[in-house]
Amino acid sequence: NGIGGFTCQCPPGFSGQRCEDRDPCGSQPCMNGGTCRATNGNTGFQCICP
């Protein structure tokens, strides 16, 4: 994003300047209509039952 710069296009579930931040809910790990909530500073997740 500028002269000599770059912009990463991250795959689903990842973000950050170099796609280094993983979204623990990006893979939709919760089943049966559960809602995923990231925990522990985005290092884990919790499923909330409907």
Automatic annotation (TrEMBL):
Disulfides per UniProt: 10-19, 30-47
EGF-like domain ranges (all copies): 1-20, 21-50
Short name of one Pfam family: EGF
Keyword Repeat set for record: yes
Keywords: Disulfide bond, EGF-like domain, Repeat
Keyword Disulfide bond among record annotations: yes
InterPro entries: EGF, EGF-like_CS, Notch_Cell-Fate_Det
Name of the protein in question: EGF-like domain-containing protein
Organism from which the protein derives: Rotaria magnacalcarata
